[in-house]
């Protein structure tokens, strides 16, 4: 790894708002990449890594966050080599964690270390801890659309922060609020039958659809694929009707569940004359 890279560290206990502050710190110090909970983030886009927030236990989450898995670390190192950043912001709960991340990714020790208490007020830290404890809320410094590609099945919300400009005007950062799998509030799941019902009802709201004959849901780590067999009314242009059903199902399922819908297939099995 290129040792000319400068590393900046943001350190603070879990739940004190480091990820929430990450974009502001990155902006302040002109950092090119953020390393947070196993992810590499560039300009709000997840460019490499797998988030610790997807892991099923806290132990696995910690191992993911410090890049213990060789393939995870190699992907991150290759991305850093390709992007050739000048500065990288690394988030960690302790200096030891920062050191372990830097070692795994072959980064130099931090040239600058900021504690969360230096960039957030005591009341802000207390609010962050309360949100973590009571609602299991975590922040990822990337927009909702970007996060949804990687976090299917998570409760995802959008949070926008306006930063004061440094000669080039104000800048708005968008972040995502998620509830991780290992949250003490329990794992968030959606029954397959509920998904099938939502998809079917969405398709049936499209004018020209008589009945949904069959729904199939295929779930994966990055999202769901939905297949529908439809009974349609005679007199409608089938390609347009099927396309409208696809769009309606995708929009409805994503809106009601926060799942990432990868694709929707619609097949016309029957035509009926009302």
Write the layout of secondary structure elements.
Blueprint: E1 6-11, H1 18-28, E2 33-36, E3 39-42, E4 45-49, H2 58-65, H3 70-83, E5 87-92, H4 95-104, E6 112-115, H5 116-119, H6 122-135, E7 138-140, H7 144-148, E8 156-163, E9 171-178, H8 192-204, E10 209-220, E11 223-233, H9 238-257, E12 261-272
Parallel strand pairs: 1-5, 1-6, 2-5, 11-12
Antiparallel strand pairs: 2-3, 3-4, 7-9, 8-9, 10-11
Helix pairs in contact: 8-9
Give a structural overview.
This protein has helices at 18-28, 58-65, 70-83, 95-104, 116-119, 122-135, 144-148, 192-204, 238-257, and strands at residues 6-11, 33-36, 39-42, 45-49, 87-92, 112-115, 138-140, 156-163, 171-178, 209-220, 223-233, 261-272. With 274 residues, it is α/β, with parallel strands linked by helices. A six-stranded mixed sheet has the order 4-3-2-5-1-6, with helices on both faces. It is elongated, with a radius of gyration of 22 Å. The model has no long low-confidence stretch (mean pLDDT 87).
